[in-house]
Amino acid sequence: MTVEEQVKDIVSKIAHIDKSIMSKESTFKEMKADSLDVVQALVAVEETFDIEIPDEEAQKFRNFGDFVDFVQQEVSKKG
Amino acid sequence: MKPLQGKLALITGSGRGIGKAIALKLASQGCDIVVNYFRRREAAEQTAEALRELGVKVDLIKANVGDSSKIAEMFDTITESHGYLDIFISNAASGVGRPIMEIDEKAWDWTMGINAKALLLCAQRAAGLMEGRNGKIVSISSLGSKFVWPTYAAVGVSKAALEAVTRYLAIEFCPKGIAVNAVSASAVDTEALKFYIREGLVKDVKQTTPVGRMVTPEDVANVVAFLCSEEAYMIRGQTIIVDGGTCVAPWSSVVEKGEA
Lengths: 79, 260
Hints:
The structure holds two protein chains of two kinds. By secondary structure, chain A is mostly helical. Chain A has a single domain (about 5-80), classed as ACP-like (Non-ribosomal Peptide Synthetase Peptidyl Carrier Protein, Chain A, Orthogonal Bundle). Chain A is about 60% helix and about 0% strand. The longest helix of chain B has 25 residues, at about 105-130. Chain B is built from seven helices and seven strands. Chain B is of the alpha/beta class. Chain B has one domain: NAD(P)-binding Rossmann-like Domain (Rossmann fold). The mean pLDDT of chain B is about 90. In chain B, strand 4 (about 85-90), helix 4 and strand 5 (about 135-140) form a beta-alpha-beta unit.
């Protein structure tokens, strides 16, 4: 499973979103994920990949793709 | 010898803000500290370093206190590494800022879990580690438990629950020799305040606080430290308000201020 697939899996479970409507261009609003869904997704992703996503960084995510890219970047930093 | 020398305190959410100030205050009195944090490891590590500079032993434990299994793991770790606990401060807080009609079950459960249920579950485990040690438990509340602020409903209700849990714990823990109290503050000058900030809020708070300034994390920490001392032995189940006089003079913007 790729990082993107894993993140998609986590977000869809937490926010009860059908994976078929999730693309890298989708905004959280378009996916009907509220602010708590986003926080819970951040927490779950941090725990899954053992990374840290600072709130300041998370606030910059324009869409799901930005979220995935940040996670991928942090995961590759860890090697 | 410092008053809390040889004692051990667990402070939830002590990587920053009020929790950090409490950790520093207790450490300045010689207390060893377990810093619990959730998401900000870097801030927690900086706090740990500042505490070590005060000459105390410090442990760092990452745990989401909204998750009962993480609470259990945190206390298992303390049991294994120390086997005792003298002070437990329930400080970690979170919440969803929404008007009451927009609070769904998930937002309610999240807020109640971290702010109120965590005190109950942590206190139950802490009590076992405090046997025969005159333990102290202090929970951190806010004036939103009594007063209505915009979008603060979920947090306000959870803080009211926290204060009620504090009272019940206080009485049921008397036979165990554990003193339980709460400290409640008005708007405190921390990073978390940014989540509730609106234009002019800081100015408004200053204007409506009789002493003429906002409550600081250190103001809260000083009262917590007192409640952790033997001088506070006969105070049980109380919520001590730290607000610079706001509650007793809510219209203080029209009266003369004290020193700023």
